[in-house]
Amino acid sequence: MTSTKFVSVLLVSIASLAACSRNEPAAPPPAASMPAPAEPAPPAAEPAPAPLTLDQVARLVRPHSPIFGSKNARVTVVEVLDPACEACKAFAPVVEQLLFLYPEDVRVVVRYADFHPVSLQAIRLLEAARAQGKVHEVLAALFSRQQEWASHTAPNPAQAWVIASEAGLDMGRARKDALAKSVDDMLNLEAKDLSVLKVERTPTFFVNGKPLPVFGADELLAMVASEVQNR
Question: What pTM was estimated for this model as a whole?
Answer without folding.
Answer: 0.85
